[in-house]
Design brief:
Blueprint (H helix, E strand, L loop, with lengths): L1 E6 L6 H16 L3 E6 L9 H6 L1 E2 L3 E2 H10 L4 E5 H6 L13 E3 L1 H10 L2 E4 L1
Parallel strand pairs: 1-2, 1-7, 2-5, 5-6
Antiparallel strand pairs: 3-4
Helix pairs in contact: 1-3
Length: about 120
Amino acid sequence: MKILIHVTVGPGDATKAALAFLVAKTVIAEGHQLALFVAGDGVHLLTGVNADQVEGLGTGKLRDHFDALNAAQGAEIYFSGMSAKARNIEPEHIVLRNAQPAMPSRLVQLTVECDRVICY
């Protein structure tokens, strides 16, 4: 099964933000295909500072979830290039390896391709 996780929540809601990436790493751990699309304020989460500081109540440390995703093979990981640009986040600031900038059309394609979609 292919599962899309769409993240728009930012570091201001640490519990929900960490939960999104906890679920993403769980998708892989359960043997499913992961497609991850981070947009809006969620792109702030992808920077080193936020990856190190964000920790959710009962949902863990964002950095730990990123480490698991970085070690995984085969996940499709995208971030909104428009959201990043609007927030002055350059691709080299992104610490989630293999994350590629993408346009809204890619999000639409993923939504059609995936069996399930989860939004945070």
